[in-house]
């Protein structure tokens, strides 16, 4: 269930103590300890386990994540809750911006008294709230941000101060860059493509692609004929299109989350430009994007956690998508698919439930080490992947582990492609493929 309850004194027997550290200290500084405590003694909310969920609610990723979280909470309550407590979902709208996200995170911790925080989308948002979350100690599971810096600047730099921070998905952008190299090998085998261009948002999550992918492609024997980082405020793609036509790549690897590349796709189809468009395009993950683009999305690809429910990544994937669609059947504001963030958020809620049940406690003030140990011991089968976490001494402590096949190819980074008539299929990796990649019909 969702709530807008602003009671700051909800006591939680098995979770956080009744008053957040900052709330208590602030009250003490104002000489208001007696008043604050008096409001908390009743313990009206002793039997509630609160999940704080951060997401950009005007974005389809946020909406899909919210509905997936609602569905997970309903399932948990139908099964007796968490540690015999009723579960309550409190979704906070970050608006995809750092300042509102910081305010909402503070509210979740100090007023809503949440037991865990799950979500966030933009990496800049995740990076901005980490210090606050580390100071408060509340467990935090990232489910929508890919920047390696989220881990490198937290558990990777001061483990003891940040050990409450985890990421259950997606895999970080450094691993995604490697996976894109594997994907380039597949495109080369499939079509003989060996010349590539590179475009990206000027954003935190794309920095590893900008730094690593061109070199990754060149190390594999490919030519990179154009590299460009674009302002997220771009409103004219004409110069970009001209540069690509002049460079003559076989395919363009573009990485857009903040940019909606409809103008690029429109020119590509209208002029039948002689290259493929590959990589990641978050807007293209939206279920109705084919229709919104008037078919211009045909043949473009995007990687996304859960592969848009096109293939049985695990034995939970297709059932989850079917159950999600039944859950949102009468909800006109919900996307018809969970979105990549929805897969990850749903998995994080169920994974964390198993972790605290295994630890026998959700009291992170007193028992954080027990919760962390339980999280690190997890080998959880989710809807988007089999999830486990790197340990304290690894390069990315508490980041989710990338899965690899016998050849070393990363497999928990599936790529989907829009096909004619609006069909969408998984084209990579081989383990999850439902169709071979299709080159644009106008390419020789």
Brief description of this entry?
With 444 residues, this protein is of the alpha/beta class. It contains 15 helices and 14 strands.
The CATH topology of the largest domain, please?
Rossmann fold
Under CATH at level 1, the class of the largest domain stands as Alpha Beta
Number of helices: 15
Low-confidence spans: 1-14, 16-44
Give the mean pLDDT: 90
Helix content: 25-40%
CATH superfamily of the largest domain: Response regulator
List the topology elements:
Elements: H1 21-29, H2 33-38, E1 48-55, H3 60-78, E2 86-93, H4 98-110, E3 116-119, H5 123-136, E4 140-142, H6 149-152, H7 159-162, E5 165-167, H8 173-191, E6 195-201, H9 207-219, E7 223-230, H10 238-247, E8 251-256, H11 262-270, E9 276-281, H12 289-292, E10 301-303, H13 317-327, H14 339-359, H15 364-376, E11 380-381, E12 386-387, E13 415-418, E14 424-428
Parallel strand pairs: 1-2, 1-3, 3-4, 4-5, 6-7, 6-8, 8-9
Antiparallel strand pairs: 10-13, 11-12, 13-14
Task: Give a structural overview.
With 444 residues, this protein is of the alpha/beta class. Helix 8 packs parallel to helix 9 (207-219) and helix 14 packs across helix 15. Helices cover 38% and strands 16% of the residues. Strand 3, helix 5 and strand 4 (140-142) form a beta-alpha-beta unit. The chain folds into two domains: 21-171 and 317-387, Rossmann fold (3-Layer(aba) Sandwich), CATH 3.40.50; 173-308 and 407-432, Response regulator (Rossmann fold, 3-Layer(aba) Sandwich). The chain is built from 15 helices and 14 strands. The chain is globular and about 65 Å long. It has a five-stranded parallel β-sheet, with helices on both faces. A four-stranded parallel β-sheet has the order 7-6-8-9, sandwiched between helices. It has helices spanning 21-29, 33-38, 60-78, 98-110, 123-136, 149-152, 159-162, 173-191, 207-219, 238-247, 262-270, 289-292, 317-327, 339-359, 364-376; strands at residues 48-55, 86-93, 116-119, 140-142, 165-167, 195-201, 223-230, 251-256, 276-281, 301-303, 380-381, 386-387, 415-418, 424-428.
